[in-house]
Each structure stands twice: as structure tokens, then as C-alpha cells.
Specification:
Chain A: Pfam families: AAA_3, AAA_lid_2. The complex is a heterodimer. By secondary structure, chain A is α/β, with parallel strands linked by helices. Chain A has 14 helices and 13 strands. In chain B, the strands form 5 sheets. Chain B has a 6-stranded antiparallel beta sheet, with no helix packed on it. In chain B, strand 13, helix 16 and strand 14 form a beta-alpha-beta unit. Classes of the chains: A alpha/beta, B alpha+beta. At the A-B interface, helix 12 and helix 14 of A face helix 21, helix 23 and helix 26 of B.
């Protein structure tokens, strides 16, 4: 394992190169997934934010295809795990096998030893197996038989799951869900895209034509560029305020974790960079709040009885929460008495 | 009887009690009988309507109908039988007019004049209806106090100095009765009264639960009584000037027969009427007649001049002939025919001085030999036509100079020289009459004093005189009209020991064919001086140029005439002849104030102080109000200019090039940030001004986009709004703010765009009453009050710790 670690991601790129590289990846994916620009962009943003993606939707909308297209667009190691009820943790992480020739135990790396790991139908595996992913997702390492193996960088888990069919599934535990940076839904394609798909897929599988447009080194540089995006204090305050609001909302039993704050801001940076900005806007946070936060929170029983989805609850929090502002400057915030701290770079005492 | 019906009767009773103040207005109690009848019938109608369970509007209607029927019955025009016809309403209108005239003519107490009675009954009836509706239908008896108070305002308006208190107490008792009845009715409807300790309480027993209310009531009454004592009063100032009419009479010993006209009030009323009405048409065989006179004011007290009641014998007894009783003068006998119009209705007959015989009058007219007036307590001059013989005396200064001095004990002297002590007047009289021997010369000296040369200015808009000090002050301010001139000269003559009084009447009027037409503009007052052997001699000190139809005699020539003053050309019409001289036919309605202003352009305007002071005060108050109204707009404009102004940026406190996140902090970026923030704040305020909601959860980018869609901004303004949004966004969140953006131009464009899409009301409000400023103030106020509450709460906690009650055992019980 001599690949570069996450802490040495490579130097940042000029914005033109960044834009060219990212748009090449997105265009590439969109050859396969048509009419889903926003979803593709979000998936890429999660990759650049060094996070993991959970794609949750009904069967047949292209979850696995998106995961595979993303993996194929980047020339790096890709492993696919089909989660089944009888899958074992060692299938995921790897196992030490006795080598008769060398008379020693030899470590056979599992499926996670790749840059991109596509976990299909993740909720079909038992919690025991699901838990195998905990360490590698957060700490990007695998510990087997007392030996810790570093994973490659970039490392990203793209998992899919079907929220409708509950028979024979094991819902992801909180800890596992919290490790996914964002949960996105594919949604049905619009009729035009579906028509194009019919005519296209009839001839051949577009996935097989997909060429890689980036490699792992480039992705590392892209990630370095994203890390360099500026998040003003006001934006950081707003991120904290958003996450805090989920913890204090009466409809929520369990709010979002501090890890989610970090991931929210990282993803926002990635989105900002994808939009060609070198600074994060509250708009980015607002747009990302639902995909990043909604899958981590647990609504109260009342809210569940009222059929309030976590998406709706988070959206309402976003809508209600005022931006951090200078109380001396703007008198128009009467909704939420508490004055949030202000950007320290704003002039004071006017 | 149900509570509502009983309450209706109480309302009627309370109304009658509240009508008590009217008793101080009327001389007799006819009004009370009529009001009793009216209010009783109205109450009956109300009870009936309620018994038949009429709806509220029908109850009101039935009461109004009963009031109308009662009025028709009490004041019939003679052509209907109880059911009002159009002629009835015409009659009512006449009564209204008559009441208006009567209020101008009569001082209180007034006799039973039909017009006044009609207005009284109508007023009390209306109040009765209002009180009934407010009490029984609306169940708001406290509001019923307002119409009841309106009745009391009548004597308040009439009696300036001392308002009778007793009627007010009676009225107040009525009001309290109403309140108590209503509350008792409420309690009875509720059921039992209880005190909280499980015991029933009788209706009249004070409930312990109401103790707080009683305490509040006591505090309220004490505050209401004490506070006005602390506030500086305005009596003698604005109030008394506003409610002037009718003071100065009404005092004095004679409150007997018939109504006494307040001649001063009547005079100013006539002169200040907006329209000119013909009052008298007169035909005489004399070529240059003097003034018609009908009344005199011969009492001078601290309250000013007042009239004594005339008393005398029926004119059927014959009138005295001056030729037999006085010594000198050239007499000529003349005859005049008079037709008085329906606009002049008074109990005093306008005739020439020295009338010796009257024809064509009905019985009931009397002649007062002392005042030389023809009067009646029953008859009115309305539509009267008569003719009379009179003697015109002509005097020369030489003749009058022969008049002997009067014996100081002569009753005429005693009666007509009393006057208030005023050292300034006495000093002036002493100075003017120094060295004069005969009474006539003294009077002439005083008379000549009232000249334009001496600074006297005619101004009709002067307030009527209310008391003696105002006459004295006229000698200082030197601005006034015939009242002031006549009264001042009479006082000065009295001060010099010569009997004098003020006569009222009409100047000659305008010639129309072979007769004279006398209008209300000819109403006039002048001075009469008593000279021994000659009787009462008229002296008119008012500038002839300013009085339509003024006349002068050669014993009292126009003092302004020889002087080449600005009035000379007008005064030239009043050339004195050997005979009583003709006054200016050519002078056009000089009584108008604007004219008098022109004619006295050169004179001192020291006397305008009182009037213009009030005017200035009012103008000042209005200006202040306007300024106050404009304060929000001004504040908004200043704020905008402040934001638009390019202010030099202060040097940043920390000049770091390697701060967190590589923020570049230089003077330029600080300024660019400040500019963007100022522009954004201004945009927010502008949006508030144009009633576009502000959402604090929106980012600048979204706000700008929403502004564009909400306000339908097109092209330029839309670009400008986007620019402002971007500038603020970068200033807040980016490493480097947007520099070099035309933010001020953008703001102006957005504002124009908003104004274009807003409606007129919003636009106007945005300029005059900017909601942004008002909202800031409101929020500031709310914040301040919240702070106050917090501080006071903390203070209370501190004090509570120090309270000794804390130490008492079982304080919580």
C-alpha cells in the first residue's frame, strides 16, 4: 500500500483546469444518466468532498448505473459488492488466509480495497456485514487480525438501497447512515430522457462505451482545490446554526451530528467549486441541507404519525432559519430573536 | 317591567336632568314644559317600540318620528294638522334663521323666542334619542355622557366668566343615575352577586371585589380635579376670545322685563355678517339726514359699557319736543317713512334723534325719555312700516361753547359719568383737556385725539370689546372700529366729568331713488355727549372714511380731513358743510377689513399683535405638525444620502495579508465591503418602503432574484438588482469584495423600477411616510421598552430581597 494518503492530496488546480476536468466527468456520466444533471453534480460534489454517497430510490431508476458511471469515468480501481443476506464482513474487508507455501497467514484484501466501492442494495446485508464498512468509511483503513491496512485515496463508497421493499432487509443503523455524506434520490426520468434511453439502450449498453476522463491523481488535485475554497465565518456560523436547528427542532428526536456539520461545509465547498466560485454561499448550504442532513435525523413519533418526512422537516428549518447577520445593520429580523455572530470582516460601528 | 324598559325611562329622566343648564339661558320655564313633553313622548315611543319587540333601527325611527310630530305640534306653521307638510319644514327653517338672529341679538337670559325654543326642544329631543339608543340599545351608557355634556356646553359658551355650577351638578347626577341603573341591571341579569366568600350580597351593599375599582375611581377623580389646577390656565386668553359673544351684558341689577339686547354683540354680529342684507328702507324730506338710532349703552363698569333696561310710557302718550325743553340750536322739522325688512327683528325701533311723533305702529311700543329710544318688550320691528316726525337740530361750535357747566350733583351727571378708575386714561384726558374751558372745547379736544395723525387705525376684524380694560387698551393699540372709538370717547368724556354714552344705530345708507337703503353694513355706534341746555349731542369719533354713510357736523368735523394723509382722497367726500355734512357716497363699503388695511397703510400696526399673535401661533402649530409629519421622510432622505455619500474608509485595525482563509484586508477592500453593505441596506429599506417583504432567511442572491420577479423589474433595474445582490454576497462571503460596481447608480435604477411597478399610494407612502424608518423606530421603541422591563424587573428583585416582609414567618400561608 504505497499510494498517496489523504493528507497529501496533491496541489490545487487553476480554476480553468478544474472546470474543464469536472465538466468532462459530468458530461461523461450524463451520457449514461440522461436528464439528471443536478443528481450527477451532487454525486460528483460528494466525491470531491471526500464523502460517501447513499443513493436511495425505487428499483430501476438507475441507481447502480449512476454509481458505475461515476466509477468508470475515473480511471481508478473500482470494486462492486452485491450485498446479500449471507454476505460476511470478511468479504468486505478481507481475510487472512493460511499460505501453505509460506506457512504463514496472508491477508487477502476485501472489496473495499479500491478507490471507488459500489455497494449495491446495501440494506440487504445483515447489520454485522454492514458494520464492516464503519471503520473503512470514516477512518479509511481496515483492521484485520490486529493489522491495520490503509485504504487508497480517493476512497468513496457509493451505496444504493431500496426504501420501499422492506421484506428481508436490515435498515442501516444510525452510525452507518451518519457516515454517508449525502443521500440522494434519483427520481424518475422525464419522458424525453426515457425515450432517449429506450432508443439508446436498445442497441447497446452505453455504460460499456464509457471512457475514463480522469484518474485518481487528478481527483486528488480536484479535492485539493475544493479544500481551498473559502468559507467565510458567516457561512460557517450558518452551517452550525442549521445543524443546531435540527437538534433543537421539536419534531426531531435525534438531530444531526457534528460530523454532519463538517460534511455539510465540505460538500458546500465542492458545490461552490463546481459552480466556479472560490467561496461558499449560504445558498450552497441551503441547497445541500436536505441531501446532507435529512437522512441522519430521526423524527419524533408525532412527526412520523403526521407523515412528516425528514426531508420536509429539514426544508422547513432551512426556510425558517434566518441568515447570520449584524443586528446593528439589519433591523428586519424579527422572527428569531437571537442575534447570530457576524462576519468579523464586516465593518462595525457605523 | 323589564330592565330594558326601565332603563329607557331612566335615560329619559337623566336627559331631563342634564337639560338643567338650559335654565340659565332662558328667562322663563316654557322650554322646560316643552322639553318635558317632548322627552316624555320620546320615552313613551321607545317603551312602546320595545314592548312590540321592534328591531333597533325601528326603535330609533319611532323616536325620531315622535320627535318630529311633537315639534310639529308645538311649533305649527298653521297649515297642517299634526302631520308635517313641506310648509312645516319651511317654517322650521325660518325658526332656525330666527334663532340664529336671536342668538346674535339677545344677551342671556333670553325671553321665550320661538326660534330659540324650537332649537332647544329639537336639541334636547335629539339628545334624548341619542341617550336612549346608547344606553338601551348599545348598552354603552358611559358614551351617553357625551350628548349630555353637549347640553352643558351651551351655557359654557354663553357665560364666559362664571358658568353656573348647580345645573352641572344636576346634570351630573342624571348621568350617574343612568350609569348606576345600567350597572344594577347588568348585575341583576347576571344573577346573584357574590363576594367570593360564598355569601350573597345585596344590590346596594358595596362588594369587596369592587374595592380595586373604587380605589381607581377615587384616584381618577382626584387626578382629574388636581391636575387642571397645576396646568396654567388660558382664561382671558384664547378661550375667552373664542367664546366671546355675549359677555359684558347680563350683569348688573336689571334682570326683569324682557330680553335685553347686547348692543355691542349685536353690532359686531351685524358688521361681521358675510353677506349684506337690506334691513331698513327709509324716505325722508331732509336732504342730509343724520344717523338712525335705536339704543344706547349708558352704564360703564369694569365690564365695559352696558345698557340699562329702558323704561317709559306708551308712545300713545305722545313724545316730548326738544324745542320746548332745550335752549339753543336751529331746528327744522322733517318727516320720514320707514319700511323695516324681515331681517331686522328686535324690540328697539330705529328712528332719528328728537322724534316727536310716530304713526302707523301697533300698540305696545314705549318711549324712554332718558335714553330717547322707542322700545317694546312684545313687539318686533320685523316687517314693520311706519312714519315719524322729527326735529333736526343744527348747532355751531359757538353755540355749543355757550353751554354752561353742569352741576356735579345733577342726576344726569351722576348717572352718566361713572367710570372705572384707570390712571392711564385719566392722565390722557388731563393732558388733552388742559387749558380748555368749556365742556364743548374739552370734548372737541378729546374728539380730535382720534385721528389718523395720532395713529388711530380702523380695523373691523378687531375683537369686540368685552370689558373696560379692552377699551383702555384701545387707547394704546389704537386699532379698532366704531365700538372702540365710541366707547373710548364716551369714557374719556366721562373722565372729564361730562355725561356721555354710546348710541347704536345705522348710518345713512345708500341712496336708491328718493329713499335710503340701510343694510347691516350700516350698523354703527357713536358717542353722545350731554351739554347743558342742548341735551344729547352726537359725536362720531370713528374715521369717516371708513364708515359707509358717515356724517359729520361742523361742531364735530372730520378730524382727518385737513391732513394730507393717505386717506385724504377718500375723506374728501366727507366735506363738512354748514349743515351736518354729507359723508361719502363714493366710499365703497369701507368696513371691510382689507380696505381698512390699505387706508391705514402708514400707521403703526402695534395693534395687530393680539390677532396676528394667535394667527402666528396657529400657523406655527400647523407648521410644527407638518414638520413632525415630515420627520420620517426627512430621516429616510438623510439616511439615503449618507449611504450614497462616498465616505473615506478608515484604516483597518488589523492589516493582515495572511489572515484566516487568506482574506486580503486592505483599505480598498474594507471600503468596497462597506459600500456594498451600505448599498444593500439601502436596497432593503427601499424594498420595505415599497412593501416588498423581507425574508431574513433569504440570501442576497435569492432576495435579488425575488425582488426582480415580485416587482416585475425589467432590463436595467433587473441588472442593477442582480449587481447589488452580487456585491453584497461577495462582500459578505468572498475573499475579495466586488470593487468598482456602480452601486449608487444601480440603487437609483432599482428605486425607479420599483416606483414604476408600485401603485400611487405605495409610492406616496414610500416618500412621505417611509415604512422602513417607521419600522426601525417601532423596533427601537420595542427594544427600549423591553430593556426597561428587564431593568425594572431586576430592580424589583433587588428590592424584594431587601423587603422586611421576607423575614415574616408563614408569609406564604
Amino acid at each position: 500500500m504505497t499510494t498517496p494518503t489523504w493528507d497529501e492530496p496533491g496541489g490545487p488546480m487553476p480554476s480553468e483546469d478544474f472546470r474543464a476536468a469536472t465538466s468532462a466527468i459530468m458530461t461523461n456520466i450524463e451520457q449514461v444518466i440522461e436528464g439528471k444533471g443536478a443528481t450527477v453534480r451532487l454525486a460528483l460534489a460528494v466525491l470531491l468532498a471526500e464523502g460517501h454517497l447513499l443513493i436511495e430510490d425505487v428499483p430501476g431508476v438507475g441507481k447502480t448505473k449512476l454509481a458505475k458511471a461515476l466509477a468508470r469515468s475515473i480511471d481508478c480501481s473500482v470494486r462492486r459488492i452485491q450485498f446479500t443476506p449471507d454476505l460476511l464482513p470478511s468479504d468486505v474487508t478481507g481475510v487472512s488466509v493460511y499460505n501453505q507455501e509460506q506457512r504463514d497467514f496472508e491477508f487477502k484484501p476485501g472489496a473495499v480495497f479500491a478507490n471507488l466501492v459500489v455497494g449495491d442494495e446495501i440494506n440487504r446485508a445483515s447489520p454485522k456485514t454492514q458494520s464492516a464498512l464503519l471503520e473503512c468509511m470514516e477512518e479509511r483503513q481496515v483492521t484485520v487480525d490486529g493489522t491495520t491496512y490503509e485504504l487508497q485515496a480517493p476512497f468513496m463508497v457509493i451505496a444504493t438501497q431500496n426504501p420501499i421493499e422492506m421484506e428481508g432487509t436490515y435498515p442501516l443503523p444510525e452510525a452507518q447512515r451518519d457516515r454517508f455524506t449525502a443521500r440522494i434520490a434519483m427520481g424518475y426520468p422525464d419522458p424525453r430522457a426515457e425515450l432517449a434511453m429506450l432508443s439508446g439502450h436498445g442497441a447497446h449498453d452505453p455504460l460499456s462505451d464509457l471512457r475514463a476522463v480522469a484518474d485518481a491523481a487528478m481527483v486528488r488535485r480536484l479535492i485539493a482545490t475544493v479544500r481551498d475554497v473559502h468559507a467565510a465565518d458567516a457561512v460557517q456560523q450558518y452551517a452550525i446554526a442549521l445543524v443546531t436547528a435540527t437538534r433543537e427542532a421539536p419534531e426531531i428526536r435525534l438531530g444531526a451530528s457534528p460530523r454532519s456539520t463538517l460534511q455539510l461545509l465540505r460538500t458546500a465547498k465542492a458545490v461552490a467549486a463546481l459552480e466556479g466560485r472560490d467561496y461558499v454561499l449560504p445558498d450552497d448550504l441551503q441547497a445541500l441541507a436536505v441531501p446532507v442532513l435529512a437522512h441522519r435525523i430521526i423524527p419524533t413519533a408525532d412527526a412520523q404519525l403526521n407523515r412528516r418526512t425528514t426531508d420536509a422537516i429539514v426544508a422547513e428549518i432551512v426556510h425558517r432559519l434566518p441568515l447570520p447577520h449584524d443586528r446593528n445593520r439589519s433591523p428586519y429580523d424579527t422572527r428569531n430573536g437571537g442575534g447570530a455572530p457576524t462576519n468579523q470582516y464586516e465593518p462595525r460601528g457605523r | 317591567m323589564s330592565g330594558r324598559r326601565r332603563l329607557g325611562l331612566v335615560a329619559a329622566g337623566a336627559t331631563l336632568l342634564a337639560a338643567a343648564p338650559i335654565s340659565s339661558i332662558f328667562d322663563s320655564y316654557t322650554w322646560l314644559m316643552q322639553c318635558l313633553l317632548t322627552v316624555g313622548l320620546i320615552a313613551g315611543a321607545a317603551v312602546g317600540a320595545r314592548t312590540l319587540r321592534f328591531p333597533a333601527w325601528a326603535q330609533a325611527l319611532s323616536m325620531i318620528v315622535v320627535l318630529l310630530l311633537t315639534l310639529t305640534w308645538l311649533f305649527p306653521s298653521g297649515e297642517e294638522f299634526l302631520i308635517p307638510t313641506p310648509s312645516t319644514f319651511g317654517h322650521f327653517a325660518d325658526l332656525f334663521t330666527q334663532a340664529g338672529q336671536d342668538t346674535r341679538s339677545y344677551g342671556v337670559p333670553v325671553p321665550d323666542r320661538d326660534g330659540l325654543l324650537f332649537v332647544t326642544v329639537l336639541g334636547i329631543g335629539s339628545v334624548a334619542i341619542a341617550v336612549d339608543l346608547l344606553t338601551v340599545v348599545a348598552r354603552k351608557p358611559a358614551l351617553a355622557g357625551l350628548p349630555m355634556l353637549a347640553i352643558y356646553s351651551v351655557p359654557v359658551a354663553v357665560y364666559v366668566d362664571s358658568v353656573p355650577v348647580l345645573p352641572f351638578i344636576v346634570g351630573a347626577i342624571g348621568f350617574l343615575w343612568l350609569l348606576v341603573s345600567d350597572n344594577i341591571d347588568r348585575v341583576r341579569r347576571f344573577g346573584r352577586r357574590f363576594t367570593g366568600d360564598g355569601r350573597d350580597v345585596d344590590v346596594w351593599e358595596p362588594s369587596p371585589l369592587a374595592a380595586a375599582g373604587r380605589r381607581l375611581g377615587v384616584i381618577g377623580v382626584v387626578a382629574a380635579v388636581l391636575l387642571p389646577l397645576l396646568v396654567p390656565t388660558i382664561s382671558g386668553g384664547l378661550l375667552s376670545q373664542l367664546t366671546q359673544s355675549g359677555s359684558g351684558v347680563g350683569v348688573g341689577p336689571g334682570n326683569g322685563t324682557g330680553g335685553r339686547i347686547n348692543l355691542f354683540a349685536s353690532l359686531s354680529g351685524q358688521l361681521s355678517q358675510a353677506d349684506e342684507v337690506d334691513l331698513v328702507r327709509l324716505k325722508t324730506d331732509e336732504s342730509t339726514p343724520y344717523y338712525l338710532r335705536f339704543g344706547v349703552a349708558d352704564q360703564l363698569t369694569t365690564n365695559g359699557f352696558g345698557s340699562t333696561n329702558p323704561s317709559g310710557e306708551n308712545i300713545a302718550q305722545g313724545l316730548p319736543d326738544p324745542r320746548t325743553s332745550t335752549a339753543g340750536g336751529a331746528f327744522a322739522e322733517h318727516r320720514a317713512e320707514v319700511q323695516i325688512s324681515d331681517k331686522l327683528a328686535q324690540g328697539m325701533l330705529p328712528v332719528y334723534q328728537n322724534t316727536i311723533g310716530l304713526d302707523g305702529l301697533e300698540n305696545g311700543w314705549f318711549f324712554d325719555d332718558n335714553q330717547q329710544v322707542v322700545y317694546s318688550n312684545r313687539r318686533s320691528t320685523k316687517d314693520v312700516a311706519f312714519s315719524f316726525d322729527y326735529v333736526r337740530a343744527r348747532y355751531t361750535p359757538q353755540m355749543l361753547r355757550q353751554a354752561e357747566r353742569l352741576n356735579p350733583d345733577d342726576p344726569i351727571v351722576k348717572r352718566n359719568t361713572s367710570h372705572p378708575d384707570d390712571p392711564t386714561v385719566s392722565a390722557l384726558v388731563t393732558r388733552l383737556t388742559a387749558g380748555k374751558q368749556s365742556d364743548y372745547d374739552k370734548v372737541r379736544a378729546l374728539y380730535d385725539h382720534f385721528s389718523t395723525k395720532n395713529g388711530f387705525t380702523y380695523r373691523l376684524s378687531t375683537q369686540p370689546i368685552a370689558n373696560s380694560s379692552e377699551i383702555a387698551s384701545f387707547l394704546q393699540t389704537k386699532v379698532g372700529y366704531c365700538q372702540q372709538y365710541a366707547a373710548a370717547l364716551a369714557w374719556m368724556a366721562r373722565d372729564a366729568g361730562i355725561p356721555a354714552r354710546v348710541a347704536f344705530g345705522f348710518t345713512r345708507g345708500e341712496k336708491d331713488g328718493d329713499s335710503y337703503v340701510i343694510t347691516n353694513r350700516n350698523a354703527h355706534a357713536w358717542t353722545e355727549i350731554y351739554l347743558k341746555g342742548f341735551g344729547w349731542i352726537p359725536f362720531d369719533a370713528t374715521p369717516a372714511a371708513n364708515v359707509a354713510g358717515a356724517a359729520r357736523s361742523d361742531y364735530a368735523p372730520d378730524v382727518d380731513l385737513p391732513e394730507p394723509t393717505s386717506t385724504a382722497s377718500e375723506g374728501a367726500a366727507a366735506v363738512p358743510d354748514a349743515d351736518p355734512s354729507a359723508a361719502a357716497g363714493g366710499v365703497e363699503r369701507p368696513d371691510r377689513p382689507d380696505f381698512s388695511d390699505q387706508s391705514t397703510a402708514g400707521s403703526a400696526d402695534s395693534g395687530t399683535g393680539v390677532l396676528s399673535g394667535t394667527a402666528f401661533l396657529i400657523i406655527g402649530l400647523i407648521a410644527l405638525l407638518l414638520v413632525l409629519l415630515l420627520v420620517p421622510a426627512l430621516r429616510r432622505v438623510l439616511l439615503r444620502r449618507h449611504r450614497h455619500a462616498v465616505t473615506a474608509p478608515k484604516a483597518p485595525k488589523v492589516r493582515s495579508l495572511d489572515g484566516p482563509g487568506d482574506i486580503v484586508v486592505t483599505a480598498e477592500t474594507v471600503k468596497a465591503r462597506a459600500d456594498a453593505h451600505a448599498a444593500w441596506d439601502e436596497l432593503m429599506d427601499t424594498m420595505v418602503d415599497f412593501r416588498i417583504p423581507i425574508d431574513p432567511s433569504e440570501t442576497p442572491r435569492v432576495t435579488a432574484q425575488r425582488l426582480i420577479t415580485d416587482a416585475v423589474l425589467l432590463e436595467e433595474p433587473a441588472t442593477a438588482a442582480t449587481l447589488l445582490g452580487t456585491a453584497e454576497e461577495k462582500a459578505r462571503y468572498a475573499r475579495k469584495p466586488l470593487e468598482g460596481g456602480e452601486l449608487t447608480v444601480a440603487l437609483t435604477r432599482v428605486r425607479k423600477g420599483l416606483a414604476r411597478s408600485a401603485n400611487r399610494r405605495t409610492r406616496l407612502a414610500a416618500v412621505l411616510m417611509p415604512p422602513s424608518v417607521l419600522m426601525r423606530w417601532r423596533l427601537g421603541l420595542a427594544e427600549a421598552s423591553a430593556r426597561l422591563v428587564t431593568v425594572s424587573g431586576r430592580l424589583r428583585d433587588v428590592l424584594a430581597k431587601a423587603s422586611p416582609r421576607r423575614l415574616l414567618p408563614h408569609r406564604g400561608r
